[in-house]
Amino acid sequence: MKKIIFILALFISFSSCKSSKRSKRSSNSSSKIITKKSDANENDRVVISSEEKKYTPRNANSRRTKADNIIEYAESFEGVRYKWGGTTKAGMDCSGLIYESFRAYDVNLPRISRDMAKRGDKINLKDVHKGDLLFFKTGNRRNAINHVGLIVSIENNDIEFIHATSSKGVMTSWINETYWHKAFYEARRVL
After folding, report:
1. List of residues 6+ apart from 67 with CB closer than 8 A
2. Catalytic residues
3. Which fold has domain 64-189?
4. What are the tens digits of pLDDT across the range 150-187?
5. I need a labelling partner for 112 at 20 to 30 A (CA). Which of 96, 99, 102, 157 fits?
6. pLDDT tens for each residue of 107-116
7. Number of C-alpha atoms within 13 angstroms, CB side, residue 71?
């Protein structure tokens, strides 16, 4: 009986691992977001439909690269719990975080980390920049890429990257941490 329950639970978990699909809204329904530019003048309102709205960075007026915007979007998920196949603030996995962060700025990547590792140009770790991707093999039996992170900063020859771990959810780590240094496989530039 225990085996049947275990197999049933395993089957359910595998059948729900696909990335979530978003419902399509009809063009008739357009929720509006109204924001005020200043408190002094009520006529200074800006109306943006939710279909047109992209994530707006904190410093939208400053000159920012696409990589900066993607990184900031990814950082908005920091602290979100891990969920295999997740792509929302309700739960996120490593490839879901990268997929959604790049998608928010019209960069289409595959949904799975090992497929992402086939995109862009392979680069040496010493040549990486903010916005590049790091790929890892974290000791699974198939010896395949199974983890991805996004470089958010480079300080004193150490690389900080954001990713989602099964134990702590979306967080930042450093490549020189023993675990990540040993698991590192390659870096790629997709921007």
Report:
1. 129, 130, 131, 191
2. 94, 147, 163
3. endopeptidase fold (from Nostoc punctiforme) (3.90.1720)
4. 999 999 889 999 999 999 999 999 999 999 999 999 99
5. 157
6. 999 999 999 9
7. 21
